[in-house]
Design goal:
heterodimer; A: mainly beta; five-stranded antiparallel sheet; 1 helix; elongated; B: alpha+beta; nine-stranded mixed sheet; three-stranded antiparallel sheet; globular
Chain lengths: ~190, ~325
């Protein structure tokens, strides 16, 4: 990979730091009136999600990280790995628990997902912003409570638990915002 | 394509013009002469912390050879002073390679002025007056570089060992691998701890820098320490101006330029020849004087409470 000098650092650039792939969030140039110039850089470690701050001498460089975001179709989970497929080449990639993390609870077969590859291996997976999932378990709604806008927990086919309005019943398909984990609406029956 | 449009809107352009007018009126009233020296000079500065932009072949004739876009009009203005100009000021464009950020633009407007017969304190007073004229009533205080470090970091910048400075510097940089010179560590502490601490302090003139950071300021003993008679004028942590009780001794100038070039060599930077005309002017007789350079764009940032220098320029580096 190419090396990038501090003056090429910009938000979104992927670089290696302490052997870990990172994404640059912010790069601030600081320099006293006379003297040494520095770059104060904020980076996100793409493996752990942790944000690092680090100061470099201006002009120093970091190695680029072989990191690529790609939209892939989620295929299935074999109990250990989650499998994704590149839509153009049909090439399959397996992601482990560390890469999938919390996203697993939103993954429905055939949904398009954003997979971040590091050296060709999935590093992280983002679900679509909205997913439609079936409710496999929820208490029957109580009559007359709809006006209060009350809610109850519902377990979805993927294992995720979200709060839904009382009038929603088991077996229905609902639309959920994966960024907030909140119920949006009943899904129209396809 | 939308980047044909200016960074500054019309209101900012009017404020910019008004600021220029205020500055010129300020100096006209005080009998300081406006001068304009060349922007393209035959020599650059030897300072290892300042890189010029160069023109490799500005002319094919007898004057062939590289020319440097001036990083400050200091040398030419000192030659005018040596020729008997009396008090002078200049407001113009200067260029510094690689300096891009929210407070830096590689091309910027610098106001530089020299006052024969002024002490450093008298010049600080005048900077305070000018800033007040441009921003409205400004109360400023003076504090020594040493006291500021002692107060903020409990470390003495003049006597602490390099290892002590490095230990603290690496913590602040959150980088165990960074390697710097002693002055580099001091600069790191300055930018990462001292300047942020000045954000709540209003206007502060920081005086008496370590002698190793004298640049072209005179050094003398103050309270038992050999220091550079130099100041930086800050407003809420934003560095506005840098002033010197000017070095008059050409032998000392030559010695400092040689040290600069040693440092440049160890930093892997090109050698820069010291301007022999500046040496000759100092040999002739540079009058005892104090001089200061002030970033006009930053002054405008303060006037408009802008957070980025690009917002106060018609066209910043990105759109130039």
């Amino acid at each position: 990979m190419a090396n990038y000098s501090t003056n090429e650092f910009k938000s979104g650039l992927k670089v290696m730091l302490d052997g870990e792939p990172c994404s640059i969030l912010e790069n601030e140039f600081v320099k006293p009136g006379k003297g040494q110039a520095f770059n104060r850089v904020r980076l996100r470690n793409l493996k752990t999600g942790r944000v690092w701050e680090r100061t470099f001498k201006s002009g120093e460089s970091l190695e680029g990280a072989d990191v690529m975001d790609m939209t892939m179709e989620y295929l299935y989970n074999d109990g250990e790995f989650w499998f994704f497929m590149e839509p153009n080449t049909y090439e399959q990639h397996q992601a482990d628990q560390a890469a999938v993390g919390d996203t697993g609870k939103w993954l429905k077969e055939q949904d398009p997902c954003e997979v971040t590859l590091y050296n060709g291996t999935p590093l992280s997976v983002s679900p679509p912003n909205f997913v439609e999932l079936e409710i496999v378990e929820t208490d029957p709604g109580l009559k007359g409570d709809t006006a209060q806008g009350g809610s109850k927990p519902a377990t979805l086919s993927t294992g995720a638990v979200v709060r839904v309005p009382l009038f929603i019943s088991q077996g229905e398909v609902i639309r959920v915002d994966t960024r907030s984990g909140e119920y949006v609406a009943r899904a129209s029956k396809s | 394509m939308t980047d044909w449009q200016p960074d500054a809107d019309r209101a900012v352009l009017r404020e910019r013009a008004a600021l220029f007018a205020t500055i010129r009126e300020f100096f006209a009233r005080r009998g300081v002469l406006e001068v304009d020296t060349p922007v393209l000079g035959r020599y650059g500065v030897t300072d290892p912390g300042i890189e010029p932009l160069m023109l490799a072949q500005p002319d094919d004739g007898a004057m062939a050879g590289p020319r440097f876009l001036q990083t400050s009009p200091e040398f030419a203005m000192k030659r005018l002073l040596a020729a008997g100009s009396g008090p002078i000021y200049q407001m113009g464009k200067v260029f510094r390679r690689g300096e891009v950020g929210v407070r830096h633009n590689p091309e910027f407007t610098l106001l530089e002025w020299y006052r024969p017969g002024f002490s450093l304190d008298a010049l600080i007073e005048e900077v305070g007056d000018l800033v007040a004229a441009c921003l409205g009533g400004v109360q400023w205080q003076q504090q020594s570089y040493r006291d500021l470090f002692l107060e903020t970091l409990s470390i003495d910048p003049l006597s602490a060992s390099d290892a002590e400075l490095a230990l603290l510097g690496r913590q602040l940089a959150e980088n165990d691998e960074i390697e710097l010179t002693r002055d580099g560590w001091l600069d790191l502490l300055m930018t990462h701890a001292i300047e942020p601490g000045l954000r709540e302090r209003g206007a502060v003139a920081v005086v008496n820098y370590p002698a190793s950071q004298a640049a072209l300021a005179r050094c003398e003993e103050v309270e038992g320490h050999w220091v550079a008679r130099r100041f930086e004028f800050y407003i809420d942590g934003l560095e506005l101006a840098n002033g010197y009780d000017e070095l008059l001794d050409s032998e000392e100038l030559i010695a400092r330029a040689a040290r600069d070039n040693q440092q440049r060599e160890s930093d892997g930077l090109e050698h820069r020849e010291l301007d022999p005309r500046l040496v000759a002017a100092m040999n002739h007789r540079l009058p005892a004087c104090s001089g200061v350079a002030l970033g006009v764009d930053r002054l405008l940032m303060r006037r408009l409470t802008a957070t980025s220098i690009s917002g106060v320029m018609p066209f910043s580096w990105e759109r130039a």
